[in-house]
Design a protein that fits this description.
Blueprint: H1 15-18, H2 23-49, E1 51-56, E2 61-68, E3 92-95, E4 101-109, E5 114-122, E6 127-131, E7 138-139
Parallel strand pairs: 1-6
Antiparallel strand pairs: 1-3, 2-4, 4-5, 5-7
């Protein structure tokens, strides 16, 4: 009579790690690892977004500088971070070189108007905006 040979037993070489042969537990460990990886990828994506400015004024902004609130210590022109050097209405701009906190913003637009908007809250990984109605301290 033909014989299939010795009966093979499943390899449980990883049983010493989980402490059991329970497939449900292994599935749970696997899912926890997957969630941990996804959480770290999400955090990295949030970090890449950084701080952004959203122009909700009526005009294209040609210069945007930030200063810690009340200090009048204006930083570099953030419009340089844009390909064309300006921020059109409803466009977003990547902001560099600042930490989260409260800032004053000095901006110039294509009409020649220069405005200061005070005490803007800037949060890490978020978008802050300036709207037309906030442009009350302006001159030419």
């Amino acid at each position: 009579m033909w014989s299939a040979g010795p009966t093979e037993t499943p390899d449980h070489s990883c049983d010493h790690i989980s402490g059991s042969r329970n497939p449900g537990r292994m599935c749970c460990v696997f899912l926890c690892c997957v969630f941990a990886v996804l959480a770290s990828v999400g955090a990295a994506a949030q970090e890449r977004k950084g701080i952004r400015f959203w122009n909700l004024t009526l005009n294209t902004i040609t210069q945007l500088q930030l200063s810690p609130a009340g200090k009048n210590a204006w930083g570099p022109d953030q419009c340089r971070n844009d390909r064309d050097g300006t921020v059109d209405h409803d466009e977003r701009l990547r902001i560099t070189g600042i930490e989260p906190g409260r800032y004053d913003a000095k901006l110039a637009d294509k009409t020649g108007r220069i405005c200061v908007v005070r005490n803007i809250e800037v949060k890490d990984g978020s978008v802050f905006s300036i709207e037309e109605k906030q442009l009350t301290d302006c001159g030419k």
